[in-house]
Amino acid sequence: MKHLFTKLLAVLGFVFCLSSPIKGQNIFSGEPVQVVGQMQGYSTTASANSTFRRVSIASGTPTDGRGQWVKTYNVQSSGGDFTPINMTGGGSNGFLFISGPSSGGSCGGRYNNRWVFSGVGSGSVNAVNTISTYSNSCAGTDMGLNMNTAGRYTFVFNDVGYTGTNARYYVARTDNAPVTVSRASETLNADRTATIAITTSATPSTGENVYVRYTTGTDFSSSTTIVQAGGSSTTWSATIPALSAPNTIRYYIFTSTRSLASLNGDTEINKSLSCINYDDNANANYSYDYNVTSTTSGNFSGAIWNKTPFDGGAYIIAAGHTVTLDVAKTISTLLISAGGGTFNGSSNTLSIMSGGNLTIQSGGVFNANTGTVNFLGTATTSTTSFRNIQINGNVNIAGSVVNETLQINDGGFMSGSAPVYTATTTLIYNRSNLSDFNVTNEWTSNGTSPAAGIPQNVTLINTSGSGNFNLNLPAGNRGMAGLLTIGANTTFICNGASNNDFFIAGNIINNGTFNGNGRLTTFNGASPQIISGSGTSNFSLVTINNNTEYRKNINISNLTIASGKTLTVEAGQARTLTLTGTFTNNGTANASFVPNVGKVVLSGTGNSITGNGVTFYDLDLAGSGSRNLDLV
User: How wide is the angle at C-alpha 240 spanned by C-alphas 186 and 57, nearest 5°?
Assistant: First the structure.
């Protein structure tokens, strides 16, 4: 009747106020929505009335499942609303949703508007069913439903208004009266998950599941996910997984007889409808975010935050506040606000979770002190100055200065602008994964002084306890200003392509393997350089462009001593230089090579010694073929 009455008002152009309250429903609130049928004798008394509710939304007239009419019947052999019945559908053999005035109209009062099937058929229990027909002219067919098992049957009908579009309903069967649910507490965990504690009014029936539905959107109309609570009796809990941006997560609690897999695989409208009882914080929904903001200056572990601090939080140091890292801490992000927000690293470790970042706004201050920033996975930072950093994922430090150590662990590599090294910095490759590691943006250039992309010291460490890992230089010349330490069970490999040479201005301590890979290695420091260690040194082409001493056996294919430079064998030690190719002395005759008591082995098939004269202590012609020894 209300549907026809509204059309009449539109034609006449009348405007007046209805005395009955309007609750934002699509079906007129002055005419009840009833669930009637064969099971209760098609009675339209108040006992058939459903109740209107909104789920997860406070206002408006949604047609997407969040506006609902709900009715629960108690079906028992005795003492219930009616006895068990299997309705097969069709005239006088099913049920229907109706709404209308108490009397009058072409279909008889309450039956003036009906939502039914277009043909004979049955709906399903514990499922969402689609209504195929809306009629205000007595059309349509009653819907069948098997209610032959005793229990409570809860009908949830979508408030679509006077239309068949999106008209659908959910029927849930529970052994006992449906339980109500309420949120008891919410706990944010170190891994950015959230534990939601839930209380039920009684022990749920078998198959009556407790769920939490959550979203990172602004409402529950799209992109929602459901997790199931575990527990027993009246105590339950569910865990919302760690989520990234945006920071605000909204959720509500509900019960349903549908399975978790069927719910998460369904449409949003059906997720909304599949609800028996719920707690959505009085339609406002519950929410949390990861932001932890300073309210005053002090120690990180102190009572200086706007909420209980937790590992994994997105921390914000507000303007004018100074926060000192007095304990090791794992966080998601750190934002140092403009206007004098200050972070002091002290001597502790700040770990930033994968997907996190360090943002320093204009006027914000990051004091590394002697502390360490450990990037646990993918991360980005503002340009700043670090003391020590560790990298475990794809990290972009935006050309920041690293003053002491930059350590790249398994899974770590650098993107973005190369770091700026100082004279006290060591680039450390710390690996337990024995796959090859290819140098990326942490080492991009060539030079004899530390700078952007030019490390001072480089160290290779194998922490696996066995096997070997290879460090591969990329295309293009690479240089370093200081000490190269090749650890046990590691191999330093030059790039084998043309014009991809290696330059070193410091010492080499080789306890693993140096592989020249056919490329030139140039010693070009300003102070005398030393080659030492217990590993294997297989140089290819070598240019001695600075006074250099070797304190271990080395292998070279072609050796050139530049003018005014010397290559010296460790005094008093019978070190061996094995040469497979040429020895070119452009330095002082009989002085540029200082053999002491060392041996030179010519092991190639056609060695040659050219240039200025060379003095040997022990020369071994171990190779084959003719030799061109231009000796003076």
Answer: 75
Query: What is the phi/psi pair of residue 493, to 5°?
Result: -120, 120
Predicted model pTM: 0.75
- Alpha-carbon distance of 249 to 631, in angstroms, equals 81
Q: What percentage of the chain carries pLDDT values higher than 90?
A: 87
DSSP 375-416: E-SSEEE-S-EEEEEEESSEEE-TT-EEEEEEEE-TT-EE-S
Average pLDDT over residues 61-89: 97
For residue 95, what are its two tokens?
Answer: 């049920």
Condensed to tens digits (0 to 9), the pLDDT of residues 480-536 reads 999 999 999 999 999 999 889 999 999 999 999 999 999 999 999 999 999 999 999
4 SS3 class: helix
Q: Which amino acid is at 162?
A: Y
Can you tell me the distance from the alpha carbon of 234 to that of 181, in angstroms, rounded to the nearest whole number? 9
| Summary mean pLDDT of the chain | 93
> What is the Cα 240 distance to its own chain's centre?
14
Nearest to 172 by CA among 256, 254, 102, 88: 256
**Does 288 have pLDDT greater than 80?**
yes
- The reported pLDDT for the residue numbered 246 is 63
On the CB side of 604, CA atoms within 13 Å amount to 22
What is the residue-wise DSSP string for 254-278?
EEESS-HHHHHTS-HHHHHHS-SSE
Output DSSP code: residue 92: T
The two beta strands, 194-200 and 181-188, are antiparallel
* Helix, strand, coil tally for the chain in percent (to 5): 5, 45, 50
Strand-pair category, 457-462 with 95-99:
unpaired
**Residue 107: pLDDT band by 50, 70, 90 thresholds?**
confident
CA distances from residue 145 to 41, 51, 127, 157, 208 in whole angstroms, order as listed:
15, 21, 12, 15, 20
Task: Say which residue the tokens 């935006």 belong to.
Answer: 398
Q: Can you tell me the distance from the alpha carbon of 578 to that of 596, in angstroms, rounded to the nearest whole number?
A: 16
* Residue 160 pLDDT > 50: yes
Q: Is the pLDDT of residue 4 over 80?
A: no
Q: Which amino acid is at 11?
A: V
Can you say how many angstroms the Cα of residue 546 is from the centroid of all Cα atoms in its chain? 49
Burial of 15 by CB count in 10 Å (0-12 exposed, 13-18 middle, 19+ buried)? exposed
